[in-house]
Amino acid sequence: MSRHARDAVVEALGPDRCRVVTGSWSWAGLVGTPGRFDAGIEVVGPSEPGDAFARLTLRCARAATGAPAASPAHR
After folding, report:
1. C-alpha distances out from residue 11 to 1, 4, 16, Å
2. Nearest 10 degrees: CA dihedral of 43, 48, 52, 57?
């Protein structure tokens, strides 16, 4: 995975687990990144990434069901 992680730091934690440390200019940009990998995600850190994952989940659910996108103020 590390060759695909761009500027992130990847630390092996076991045969099927790793830690990825990365940054972004926004929480939305940060939480969009792990979706490129077909793997489970656990947030270790402040609450803001969890909140951003929740907003991204709603946007993805709307896209999956064909529901109209919410206005930017309601994302």
Report:
1. 10, 14, 12
2. 50
Task: Look at the chain and count its residues.
Answer: 75
Residue with the bigger pLDDT between 71 and 52: it is 52
Question: What percent of the chain clears pLDDT 70, i.e. is strictly above it?
Answer: 88
pLDDT at 70: 76
**pLDDT(34) > 80:** yes
Gyration radius (Cα) of the chain, Å: 14
Contacts of residue 23, Cβ cutoff 8 Å, sequence gap at least 6: 30
User: How many Cα atoms within 13 Å fall on the side-chain side of residue 9?
Assistant: 3
Contacts of 24 (CB under 8 A, 6+ apart): 30, 33
Cα–Cα nearest to 49, from 61, 60, 59, 34? 34
